[in-house]
Amino acid sequence: MIKFVLMVNRQGQTRLSRYYHPVELSRRAALEADVVRCCLSRKKDQCSFVEYKDFKLVYRQYAALYIVVGITDSENELSIYELVHNFVEVLDKYFSRVVSLNRVKNSWIQCQGVCRSLKHLK
Amino acid sequence: MPAPIRLRELIRTIRTARTQAEEREMIQKECAAIRSSFREEDNTYRCRNVAKLLYMHMLGYPAHFGQLECLKLIASQKFTDKRIGYLGAMLLLDERQDVHLLMTNCIKNDLNHSTQYVQGLALCTLGCMGSSEMCRDLAGEVEKLLKTSNSYLRKKVTLCAVHVIRKVPELMEMFLPATKNLLSEKNHGVLHTSVVLLTEMCERSPDMLAHFRKLVPQLVRILKNLIMSGYSPEHDVSGISDPFLQVRILRLLRILGKGDDDSSEAMNDILAQVATNTETSKNVGNAILYETVLTIMDIKSESGLRVLAINILGRFLLNNDKNIRYVALTSLLKTVQTDHNAVQRHRSTIVDCLKDLDVSIKRRAMELSFALVNGNNIRGMMKELLYFLDSCDPEFKADCASGVFLAAEKYAPSKRWHIDTIMRVLTTAGSYVRDDSVPNLIQLITNSVEMHAYTVQRLYKALLDDISQQPLVQVASWCIGEYGDLLVSGQCEEEEPIQVTEDEVLDVLEGLLVSNLSTPVTRGYALTAIMKLSTRFTSVNRIKKVVSIYGSSIDVELQQRAVEYNALFKKYDHMRNGFHLSLLMIINFRFFVVLSSFKMVQVCLSCLCVVPILQANDLLDLLGGNDVVPVIQNTVSTKPASAGGELLDLLGDLSLSGIPPMTAYNKNGLKIDFTFERANPNPNIAVITIHASNSTEADMTDFVFQAAVPKTFQLQLLSPSSNVVPALNQGTVTQVIRVLNPQKQQLRMRIKLTYTHKGSAVQDLAEVNNFPPQSWQ
User: Fold this and answer.
1) What is the residue-wise DSSP string for B271-330?
2) pLDDT confidence of residue A62
3) CB-based contact A51 B291, cutoff 8 Å
4) Is pLDDT at B195 greater than 70 in this prediction?
5) pLDDT, mean of residues B130-155
6) Distance from CA of residue B39 to its chain's centroid?
7) PANTHER family under this entry (chain B) (predicted)?
8) Which is nearest to B339 in space by CA: B314, B376, B375, B364?
9) Helix H segments across B373-393?
10) Looking at B536, B565, B580, which one is the last position of a domain?
11) For chain B, how many structural domains are there in total?
């Protein structure tokens, strides 16, 4: 099950976040900072799956943007990895150039809508 | 009031902020503007304001004042308003706010709306944040919509149903009739969500599981169509048709086939087909293969299929992609217990993974390597593992060292090899070794009598090189104290004997005492070793001098020992030789108490100090004296049962408490039960009685039970009732253990059993972790 989806830039600022489990607002900032620190410190030749507390993180880097998905233990990591790429391709087709952060932010509402579609794999 | 700025402008403005403080200021200004706009009840711009509020919420700023506005938007007739309203509800509201219940009526109306998009919005919201009350109210509507033929709606409804079932499991029955023709849909979206719904139902209720088993042929057919069908642009992902649906179906098949022979058989073909036909050049194919392997492992598949699955995992291990290697190692770890031989074939690849750069892969490879060690491959594997121990990160060293010790104990081909391996571990990862391994090692060395000379020589050489690794130093100083005469006399069969004089040995030991690197425990060991050498060496005066210096040491423990040793020198010089023997005997005694590394030596010492009071000839009395007053920090080992009984009296009567007994060990016909009592007046002491029984046809003779506990506990082992466990449960051997637990920590114990059964010696180690909480609270 997917617990959350985050889009973070290199400086650690959250560009998009969607939680599928209720998490307190105050805890969110700490969680995001921690997760991002975990992923940003990994090198290129390390694998994309990290064990964090009691769930797993699957992250993928696209230029300056990191997409991190938190999943439970029972989920197939490779399939989520593929899903992230699929998500990015959809955004790419829709907004033509995902790397351009401006576009992502300006059509933020549409992004949230696409996130809704991730419920399929919740 | 000018029109509020659009969301785009807001985002652009915030992006220009260079510091956190600047951003906060901008946001606060905008929040104030939004608040006043809300107060004015402005319908036209409400949508825009809420959108901005949601964005600020996502950045982490509080936005709770927008909750009611979301509700107003939901109630509006315009689609754009509704869209933002529902999005806001999903992000800002959840069942902890009472406000959310006001939405119920709106959602109900929207579920029956004429436009499918509005219905879709309502379903999404309900499926995302619906509380149990809302779900109960609206379940009827949801169930009605499940029968719709509109595929856009149907997939949303199904997902909503999944959420309802999660929140209110009792309503599952209600959705059962609607699931009849869920799988006959052509639309992949609906198919996917239907499989999710079925999976959720099967996971929650075994009855549902049994009911849905009949769907297995249909699922197999759908999967087959997916694989066999040609290119379909709608569902294609890197050349594979709808891999996400394939993975979902495989997962559902796994749940349905688990434990059921018929279903498993129906699936065998399709699983083999998927495993062989899927293209593995891209990650997509590998994801499907991974799911297939997991399914094959879980259901009752035939052995050919299982071997195929393990071979797939083996292929994964050779893949360049890190992710795939990691996934393969994780799965192999899960299957190594059941399919041991098949996994053994890939041993060399697994061992290569130890050298990988990625931390997660290294850890998995290490765990898997330990699981694969057996009598045949122990030498080769140990070489690799020791090499790994040399080069790995500190976080691995402790686990690796413990693993090496365990493996060496189980499968050591020869004593010399065993001791060499231990020495290697001590010299490379000495400071990471666990505390309780030092007494274990000492006992091991004691038992291998023929290796004493070799061992002490090697340890001495290691000491000359490096005195910073405490466990190594402790073991070495103990050995030198015990076998110093062998060292000096230069007898060694295994290796080239080195020429060492008594003074050199004493130099080394004194160096330990003085060095800054030595911990107090190590100093204790060194001092005792020096003392022991007084009976073995001739240069007694030097030893006397050293010992008397430490009589005024700041460290209380050291001082106590030195004073006691001094006393031995001054008053009981004639008995010192007797101690030589007695020390050896105590350690080789059957009724050996394994305490923390520090206390062990002290036990022997405090026993010895009793000697002046008793007759030195009677060694038995030495240990069982009534005059011994048991101070809690110096527990005394007792030998004869009678003396033990008096000792118990000294500590007060025992009162039975209602702690349930437990089985600590049950293997090869030997069963060991623990029963518990509390000792009065000290509630920190738990008294455990072990009952060993033997269900095989032959007696177990020379039965020895030993136990070790973590450092914060203290353990006292009284004498057993006998050392023969009669066959066929004709009788039991009982032995009393007293555990002092002043810090009330969770009790754990490691036990070692040795006995002779049908002519062969058997030895086993086990960890006992399942103590009932009342025994240590």
Assistant:
1) HHHHHHHS--SSHHHHHHHHHHHHHHHHTT--HHHHHHHHHHHHHHHH-S-HHHHHHHHH
2) 85
3) no
4) yes
5) 89
6) 56
7) ADAPTIN, ALPHA/GAMMA/EPSILON
8) B314
9) 378-391
10) B580
11) 2
B148 located within any domain: no
Average pLDDT score over residue span B7-33: 87
Tokens 């309203």 correspond to what residue?
B85
Q: Which domain holds residue B758?
A: 662-775
B680 backbone dihedrals φ, ψ, rounded to 5°: -90, 150
Give me the amino acid identity at B102: L
Same domain, B439 and B530: yes
In this structure, the answer to whether residues B575 and B454 fall within a common structural domain is yes
User: Residue B353: enclosing H or E segment and its boundaries?
Assistant: helix B347-353
The per-residue pLDDT for B122 is: 92
DSSP B59-102: HT---GGGHHHHHHHHHSS-HHHHHHHHHHHHHH--TTSGGGGG
Give CA–CA dist B689/B686, Å, rounded: 10
Torsion of CA B591, B596, B597, B598, to 10 degrees: -110
Q: Which residue, of B565, B580, B595, is where some domain finishes?
A: B580
In this prediction the ipTM stands at: 0.84
**Cβ-proximal residues to B69 (8 Å cutoff; 6+ apart), any chain:** B38, B46, B49, B50, B53, B88
Contacts of A49 in chain B (CB under 8 A): 323, 326-327, 360
Answer whether residue B444 shows pLDDT above 50. yes
Distance from CA of A35 to the nearest CA of B (A): 15
- Burial class (CB within 10 angstroms; exposed 0-12, middle 13-18, buried 19+) of B50: buried
Residues B458 and B553 in one domain: yes
Least confident of A105-114, B54-63, B133-142, B686-695: A105-114
**Does the N-terminal peptide bond of residue B681 adopt cis geometry, omega within 30 degrees of 0?**
yes
Question: Chain B neighbours among A 35-54 (CB < 8 Å)?
Answer: 43, 45-51
| Interface residue B316 vs chain A (CB under 8 A) | no
Nearest Cβ partner for A76 among B8, B124, B291: B291
Picking from B353, B443, B363, the residue whose alpha carbon sits closest to that of residue B398 is: B363
324-353 of B, contacting A, C-beta below 8 A: 324-327
pLDDT category, B626, cuts 50, 70, 90? Answer: very low
Per-residue pLDDT, B640? 36
Decide if B83 is inside a domain. no
**Could you tell me if residue B538 is inside a domain?**
yes
- Measure the CA–CA gap between B354 and B366, rounded to whole angstroms: 6
B40 three-class SS:
coil
Average confidence (pLDDT) over B537-563 = 81
Q: What is the CATH number of the domain that holds B712?
A: 2.60.40.1230
Most confident of B136-145, B349-358, B392-401, B414-423: B136-145
Tell me the pLDDT of chain B averaged across its residues: 80
For the cut 70, the answer to whether the pLDDT of residue B48 exceeds it is: yes
Mean pLDDT of B149-157: 90
CB pair distance less than 8 Å for B11 and A81: no
Q: Please state the φ and ψ torsions of residue B667, each to the nearest 5 degrees.
A: -155, 145
Residue B610 lies in a domain: no
3-state DSSP call for residue B345?
A: coil
Domains, chain A, ordered by start: 2-121 (3.30.450.60)
Highest mean pLDDT among A62-71, A112-121, B573-582: A62-71
Distances, alpha carbon B276 to alpha carbons B227, B288, B292, B620, in Å: 11, 11, 11, 73
Residue B564 and residue B455 share a domain: yes
**Residue B385: count of CB within 10 angstroms of its CB:** 26
Of B84, B327, B357, the CB nearest to A78: B327
Position B622 pLDDT exceeds 90: no
The answer to which of B136-150, B339-353, B418-432, B646-660 has the lowest mean pLDDT is B646-660
Residues B668 and B760 both lie in one domain: yes
Supply the pTM of this predicted model: 0.66
